[in-house]
Amino acid sequence: MSLGYSTRLIKLNKQANPKLLGVRLGKTCIKNDVSVHKVSKALGVSRQTVYNWFTGASNPQNLVAEAVERLLNDISHLK
Fold first, then answer.
1. Which CATH fold would you assign to the domain 7-78?
2. Which residue of 3, 19, 23, 57 has the fewest CB atoms within a 10 Å radius of its CB?
3. pLDDT, tens digit, 9 for 90 and up, residues 27-55
């Protein structure tokens, strides 16, 4: 099932710095078809925040970054 990530979001994610935690999260979610909604609920942040991370406009900070790392290590539970 495709979650319908826009071509613009996918393009921005591909162009963003792959070393950024939020961009890595975006690549993983796009590849595994995990919705922004599920990520935002799991991390307790807004969908806009997640979109900003995916495109490299901002990056997860402090305690949220730790939760993002854990999520990246086990993205399968959000499917």
1. 434 Repressor (Amino-terminal Domain) (1.10.260)
2. 19
3. 999 999 999 999 999 999 999 999 999 99
